Amino acid sequence: MEREEAMLAASSMYYLQDIKMDTIANHLHMSRSSVSRLLRDARDSGLVEITLRPTPTRGPGLAKKIETCFGIATHVVPVADLADETERLEQVAKATARMVTGWFDSDMIMGVAWGTTLAAISRHLGKKPTRGSAVVQLNGAANVRTSGVEYAGNLIANFGDAFDAQVHLFPVPAFFDYAETRNAMWSERSIVRVLEYQRRADIALFSIGAIAGEVPSHVYSAGYLEAGDIETLDSEGIVGDVCTIFLREDGSYEDLSMNARATGPTPAELRAIPRRICGVAGDNKVVPLLAALRAGVITDLVIDEQTATKLVEHVMELKEGAASAEELAFQERQSAAEPATAG
């Protein structure tokens, strides 16, 4: 029996039919320890998912609100109220890794960004051998202090190893010094080849970059930006980034000067990829996440319960503020239209 078939058979008998391991071993003509390994591999690969909900969770209600507001699939990961941001990140990384393992398959291409969240996701990937698949790096990683190649290369390699997929690295800086240099490089055949893999991707996997926070985003904490760059971000109203493309709070990005030097796919280019998975954890990600949602770059959101709560609260506050401003403007128009009363 093929191993995948054996995993499915053992899992079905154990989890669905409540058959004991000794009986399964006799039925499959193998040892009890072999059955135990099959069940473990089934869990690691995502074939079997076990969910525990020891306390009530707001997750389903939060997910529904986010889905209704933004039209995306949302998975809210339950976390303890006292969990710190590192623990919240780990739980989101585990959930995202399970989903990616389930969705990615043979003859598919997955584009992967790099960063703190993606590194955590890569550590939790289950082994799922595929055929004819590829993993491509979405944005450059080098900077003036380090090549960045080893960091991004190891991260992307973890995805390749998990899926037995061919790996395509993107050997360019995260940000060029000059937009003209970037434009020239985009004509080089070696770069064109990587860009073509990015364009053909079936899945894009990324997170949200935030300028500050308890767990800072890698692009802001590892020497990718100079002091002058940070000043530019502040002056242009930038709240965060997706794949090193910077966004304002309203989701706009086209006229930002830093983006002319950036190497990641723009929101318009990301939107051409059918499934776009974003894993997010952390209070500092709420505002840049809203910018990414407004830019339309996400189809599937994996978010921890605390961050989801703050996102919903923030959206509601903005709506209430907009309603109050509209009511005030209406009253002012009404007052201006009223005829003056003679004294």
TrEMBL record:
A molecular function GO annotation: DNA binding
Gene3D superfamilies linked: 3.40.50.1360, Winged helix-like DNA-binding domain superfamily/Winged helix DNA-binding domain (1.10.10.10)
Span of the signal peptide: none
Residue ranges of every copy of the Sugar-binding domain listed in the record: 62-312
InterPro entries per record: NagB/RpiA_transferase-like, SorC_transcr_regulators, Sugar-bd_dom_put, WH-like_DNA-bd_sf
Keyword vocabulary terms for this entry: DNA-binding, Transcription, Transcription regulation
Assigned protein family: Belongs to the SorC transcriptional regulatory family.
Protein name, per record: Transcriptional regulator
Organism annotation: Salinibacterium amurskyense
